[in-house]
Amino acid sequence: MMEIRSTTEQDREVFVDTFHAAFGRFPEDTTEDGGGAWWSAVEMDRGVLAVTADGRAVGTAAAYSFELTLPGEVVVPAAGVTVVGVVPSHRRRGVLTAMMRHQLAELRERGEFLSVLLASEAVIYRRFGYGPATYTGRLTVSRRHAELAAPRAGDARPDSGSVEVLRSGECREVLEEVYDRYRRAQPGAISRPRRWWDLRAGQPPIAPAQRYIALHRDADGVPDGYASYVLSDGVPDAVRRTVTLTVDETIALNDEAFTALARYVLGHDLITEAVFKHVPADHPLRWQLADFRAGVVGAEMDWLWVRLLDIPRALTARGWFADGELVLDVDDPFLGEHGRYLLTVRDGKAECVPTGRQPDLSLDATDLGSIYLGGTTPSTLVRAGHIRAHHPAAATLADTLFRTDQPPHCLHWF
Known about the structure:
The chain has helices spanning 12-22, 95-109, 122-125, 172-185, 194-199, 255-266, 285-288, 311-317, 365-371, 378-383, 394-402; strands at 2-6, 48-52, 57-70, 74-86, 114-118, 131-132, 135-142, 162-167, 212-217, 223-233, 243-252, 273-279, 295-302, 304-308, 324-332, 337-346, 349-354, 361-364, 388-389. By secondary structure, the protein is an alpha+beta fold.
């Protein structure tokens, strides 16, 4: 017998020990990127614990209380699923499935219609209805070829602001304020609750690990961007020592701020290369380099995975940028649910109601999660054989409706 139950603050110690055992780590460990006690921000009133008949805890799952920015700068509550694990002695026994089923039911009871996660393994979470919805990568630029080209557009504006160098511990409130302004306007971005900053949970620049901060201020002296970075020595070669400047994250509220920060990073003395982490695929930095090949894209991967818990509510919550109608036939195998919905979009708003009309697209909950933020086009999944288009114009119509004003991106780690 296995009991799956919700947790309270009294369970914190056993909960922390159990999920660390599931991953073969110890609570004293820090993350490889310099993070602190990231698990200190776990909300124990949102945890799930799997307990054997003899009282041993063997599995955990939890959720953070986040806000997610949807297309159209709509900010909604979202559960950030985390610390999902089963100790090795009890894997392949249905513990994970039972916990995920319990958690989804609990999220619905709370009235939440969206949940998100970062997947440690891509094959696991499709089973539970999550689909990859945002993507990220890193850009490595050789210092020898890091010159930025002069902009050719006649209306390109020179930066009239300034860059100040600080330590992360000196400017927490500024970082918090700039990030919050950024995430409210960026589809796919999630909030960083005050609790995270107070506990210094997560990864730099939130975590205790020392980082330099290049802080950009506009012409009026108002902070509008920052780059969190650290220098590290690489493996010496036969000729010289390599020194890498790694940017944990670059937050910019406008293109001028980003360009100024990139210029600062690429102009840093004593480095041989700069690595920008969490760069979206469509970012213009490569195009700003005088030598296009100087920027090498690598480590491209999925980041934020999305699951819809209430399809009509989720589809009517986000903003839309084209008018039209689409009938979606959605299967949810994990929850044993099936529904057909008429999505009608007019003037940026949507209505979504059950219908008996013939479908334009047939898809499952995973596919719907992937296309929801606009980071994956429906036609891509049609071509991949995941979504069925019932007539030739269906995929094009769906692409038009689900497109967004800007691609979704998430760089918060949780």
